[in-house]
TrEMBL record:
<comment type="similarity">
    <text>Belongs to the precorrin methyltransferase family.</text>
</comment>
<dbReference type="Pfam" id="PF00590">
    <property type="entry name" value="TP_methylase"/>
</dbReference>
<keyword id="KW-0169">Cobalamin biosynthesis</keyword>
<feature type="domain" description="Tetrapyrrole methylase">
    <location>
        <begin position="16"/>
        <end position="226"/>
    </location>
</feature>
<dbReference type="GO" id="GO:0019354">
    <property type="term" value="P:siroheme biosynthetic process"/>
</dbReference>
<dbReference type="InterPro" id="IPR000878">
    <property type="entry name" value="4pyrrol_Mease"/>
</dbReference>
<keyword id="KW-0489">Methyltransferase</keyword>
<dbReference type="InterPro" id="IPR035996">
    <property type="entry name" value="4pyrrol_Methylase_sf"/>
</dbReference>
<comment type="pathway">
    <text>Porphyrin-containing compound metabolism; siroheme biosynthesis; precorrin-2 from uroporphyrinogen III: step 1/1.</text>
</comment>
<keyword id="KW-0627">Porphyrin biosynthesis</keyword>
<dbReference type="InterPro" id="IPR006366">
    <property type="entry name" value="CobA/CysG_C"/>
</dbReference>
<comment type="pathway">
    <text>Cofactor biosynthesis; adenosylcobalamin biosynthesis; precorrin-2 from uroporphyrinogen III: step 1/1.</text>
</comment>
<keyword id="KW-0808">Transferase</keyword>
<dbReference type="GO" id="GO:0032259">
    <property type="term" value="P:methylation"/>
</dbReference>
<dbReference type="InterPro" id="IPR050161">
    <property type="entry name" value="Siro_Cobalamin_biosynth"/>
</dbReference>
<protein>
    <recommendedName>
        <fullName>uroporphyrinogen-III C-methyltransferase</fullName>
        <ecNumber>2.1.1.107</ecNumber>
    </recommendedName>
</protein>
<dbReference type="InterPro" id="IPR014776">
    <property type="entry name" value="4pyrrole_Mease_sub2"/>
</dbReference>
Amino acid sequence: MEALFSSLPDLEPGSVWLVGAGPGDPGLLTLLAVQALRQADVIVHDALVNAECLKLARPGALLEFAGKRGGKPSPKQCDISLRLVELARAGKRVLRLKGGDPFVFGRGGEEALTLLEHDVPFRIVPGITAGIGGLAYAGIPVTHREVNHAVTFLTGHDSSGLVPDRINWRGIAAGSPVIVMYMAMKHIGQISRNLIEAGRSPDEPLAFVCNAATPQQSVLETTLSRAEVDAARAGLEPPAIVVVGEVVRLRGSLDWLGRLHDRSAAAPGPAAACLFGDTA
């Protein structure tokens, strides 16, 4: 194993690695992510990074929290970006660790541009984004050949905290059989109404996956029209991924994690070939 890590690039003093930690399970960390954790002097991490991942940090590494949570006091993005510059200029080996993937609604691009502007060397290390890995842990495939040949990823709020006004809801409703939404729980009522008004069926399956790929994971299956009411009734809280589309129905068959721990939310359903017709 050590021979494997010795073949990987080193996190050099005075540089920054922007690393995705995946949706939660430490087992989903990439080898480069673990390499960075083993070598970093300072780890600047998000709120969504699982604490179990941080336990892989080398002894003596400084952990700096830089998480943002909606509706709560949070550091400004410009301050986080400039902190990375400051640490690198001090000769530190800096790991900027983000939940999911740094370039998927993770503001990694903004931080990388700041590092570039200040001539700080950096590396991008992709991670498994929650919109794919988190749904897989819930037994919901993002694509299935009998359901969809396209998927849309969108964010539920913009920099102002409101539902983005530049989203073409009619275009998405008509063109994307599966819609995966990040940071959408707060505005799920408005988002659901937008999609229904744009032509989606009120009875279309929708699922909330909260705390994906962690021991606290919970899944709520509902419909587009009932999403707001059911989420409130269940007391769901972020972080959550929301998925809309017929792939949600596959969870009855594919809830592998629930059955693995003998706590299935739904009894095993029919095989996918029976649900959609075996066209092999």
